[in-house]
Design brief:
- The chain is an alpha+beta fold.
- Strands 1-2-6-3-7-18-8-17 form an eight-stranded mixed beta sheet. A four-stranded antiparallel beta sheet has the order 12-14-10-15, covered by helices on one side. A two-stranded antiparallel ribbon has the order 4-5.
- Helix 1 packs antiparallel against helix 3, helix 3 crosses helix 10 and helix 9 packs across helix 10.
- The longest helix is centred in the N-terminal third of the chain and has 26 residues.
- Bound molecules: zinc ion (2 copies).
- One zinc ion binds next to loops.
- The site of one zinc ion (ZN) has 4 residues, from loops.
Length: 442
C-alpha cells in the first residue's frame, strides 16, 4: 500500500475550517434537547478523525465493484463500533446493522464507495496517484464524484448514532455500495440478498453538490435523476459505388433521417413539461468518399423520468426507426436497453426530513430547491424497496464559485463532512422517533 503524504498542517487547517463553519449550526436554537446536544458533541469530536479517513480514501481510490481496500476500511470501522457487519454483496458491498435500544422501524442510509477513471489534477497533499487499466488504456483513478465523502459520511453517521444507541428507536442499516459509476452496484447488492432478512422502511442518501457551499442542502421532491436508457441501431445495405447511389440503400442518408426525426419526435410528440432527451452521440459509417457503405451504426442515450414514460419512449423510437428504415427499404437491427432508472424522492419522506434539516441547519435559507437532473444515479434501486430520498450536500470550497464533479480538478470543502454527519444523524433520529410514536399511537 502506498503511503499518502498526509500533511499535518492540512488536518489542522481542516479542523480550523470546521470550527469556522460551526456558527452556521450554532446560530439557531439547535441543539436544544439533550439528545441533540449529544449528537452535536459526538460529531464535533469525530470531525478530525473523519476528515483524515476521507483523505486516506481519497488518496487510495478504487474502481467498480471490486474495492478491497475501501470496503475493508468500512467493515473494520463498523465492527469497531459494534455493528453487525455483513460483506460480499456485489463483490465489495458492506452493510452494517446498528440496533437501537428502543423499539422502532428499520431505516437505511446508503453511501457509495467507487471512484472514476480520471487522472487527478488537484494539488491536494492527499491527491490520488493511483492508476488502473480501463478498456486497455492506462488511466489515473480519482474520487472525482465525491464518493470518498459519501463513504466517510456513512461511517460518521454510524459512529454518532452508535454513540447514542440507548436513545435510538429501531434499527439503522448502513449500506456501503460499490459500482455506482459503472457497474450496477445497487441492483447487484439487492440481488445478492443484502436486504433479504432486514428490510428498511426508508432509505436516505447524500450526494455531494458542486454548486452549493458547505452548510447548504439541495433537495428535489419527486423525480431527481433520469432513466438512463439507450439504443444501438445498425442500418444495413448491399453497398455500392458512390457514383450510382440508386443501386443500393444508402445507410448514411437513412441514418441521418433517423437522427433528425428523433429530434422532431421529442419536439412534437412530447409535452414541453415532459423532460425527454434523445442524443445520438455516435454515428459511424463509411471508409471512402466514393463508396456507399454496407452499414451505418448509431448509438444513442435516451433520458426521461418514470417507468411509464420510458416504455412510451421505447415504443415511439421503435416505431420511428422501423418506419424510416422501411420507407427507404433498409434492413436494420435495433437494440434497445433500459439502464439505471430514475431516482424518485418520496415527497412525504422528503418533506419530513427537510423539516428536521431546517432546524439543524438553522434556517430555511440553508435549504435549496433544485430542478431534476437528466443524469443517472443508481440509488433509485433502493427506492424500489421502500420510500427513499437523496439530498445534495453543499461542498463548494469558500474560495470558489463552484467546483465540478467528474472533473480532474474537483475539490470539496471538508467542513461539509461534520455538517452532513450531524444533519443525517438528526434526520434519522427524527424519522425513527416519529415513526416509533406513530406506531405506538395506532
Ligand atoms: Zn458520478
Ligand atoms: Zn456520484
Amino acid at each position: 500500500m502506498k503511503q499518502c503524504p498526509l500533511a499535518v498542517p492540512v488536518l489542522v487547517l481542516a479542523v480550523i475550517t470546521v470550527l469556522a463553519a460551526a456558527p452556521v449550526i450554532r446560530a439557531a436554537a439547535y441543539p436544544s434537547t439533550p439528545l441533540e446536544k449529544k449528537v452535536k458533541a459526538a460529531t464535533d469530536k469525530l470531525a478530525p478523525e473523519l476528515i483524515a479517513i476521507r483523505e486516506d480514501i481519497h488518496c487510495h481510490p478504487e474502481l467498480g465493484n471490486h474495492l478491497p481496500r475501501t470496503s475493508a476500511i468500512v467493515a473494520d470501522y463498523f465492527r469497531r463500533l459494534g455493528l453487525e457487519v455483513r460483506t460480499g454483496f456485489a463483490d465489495s458491498g458492506v452493510i452494517g446493522i446498528l440496533r437501537g435500544a428502543k423499539p422502532g422501524p428499520v431505516v437505511a442510509m446508503r453511501g457509495d464507495m467507487d471512484a472514476l477513471p480520471i487522472t487527478e489534477e488537484t494539488d491536494l497533499p492527499f491527491a490520488s496517484k493511483e492508476k488502473a487499466v480501463v478498456e486497455g488504456r492506462e488511466t489515473g483513478v480519482m474520487h472525482a464524484c465525491g464518493h470518498d465523502i459519501h463513504t466517510t459520511l456513512l461511517l460518521g453517521v454510524a459512529a454518532v448514532l452508535a454513540s447514542v444507541k440507548a436513545d435510538l428507536p429501531g434499527t439503522v442499516v448502513f449500506v456501503a455500495q460499490p459500482g455506482e459509476e459503472c457497474c450496477a452496484g445497487a441492483s447487484l447488492m439487492i440481488q445478492d440478498g443484502a436486504f433479504k432478512d432486514i428490510v428498511p422502511a426508508a432509505f436516505f442518501a447524500y450526494h455531494v453538490d458542486d454548486t452549493l457551499k458547505a452548510g447548504k442542502l439541495g433537495y428535489t421532491s419527486g423525480f431527481m435523476s433520469a432513466n438512463v436508457d439507450g439504443f444501438t441501431l445498425e442500418i444495413k445495405s448491399e453497398g455500392c459505388h458512390g457514383a450510382s447511389p440508386w443501386s443500393c440503400v444508402d445507410p448514411i442518408v437513412v441514418g441521418a433521417e433517423v437522427v433528425t426525426a428523433l429530434q422532431v419526435l421529442v419536439a412534437r410528440e412530447f409535452s414541453v413539461h415532459n423532460n425527454t432527451v434523445i442524443t445520438v452521440g455516435s454515428f459511424h459509417a463509411g471508409s471512402a468518399p466514393n463508396i456507399i457503405p454496407r452499414s451505418a451504426r448509431l448509438e444513442a442515450t435516451v433520458r426521461n423520468y418514470g417507468e411509464d414514460q420510458r416504455r412510451t419512449l421505447q415504443e415511439k423510437i421503435t416505431r420511428l426507426v422501423t418506419n424510416v428504415c422501411e420507407a427507404a427499404g433498409a434492413k436494420f437491427d435495433l437494440g434497445y436497453e433500459f439502464g439505471t432508472m430514475s431516482v424518485y424522492n418520496d415527497p412525504a419522506l422528503t418533506a419530513r426530513a427537510l423539516a428536521a434539516a431546517e432546524r439543524v441547519l438553522g434556517s430555511k435559507a440553508a435549504l435549496v430547491e433544485q430542478k431534476p437532473e437528466m443524469g443517472g444515479e443508481d440509488f433509485s434501486y433502493f427506492g424500489r424497496i421502500a420510500p427513499a430520498v437523496m439530498f445534495n450536500l453543499g461542498v463548494v470550497p469558500p474560495e470558489l464559485e463552484a467546483t465540478a464533479v467528474h472533473s480532474p480538478t474537483f475539490v470539496a470543502d471538508e467542513a461539509a463532512i461534520p455538517i452532513g454527519v450531524n444533519l443525517m444523524a438528526n434526520i434519522i433520529l427524527d424519522h425513527q422517533t416519529r415513526s416509533a410514536k406513530t406506531k405506538t399511537t395506532k
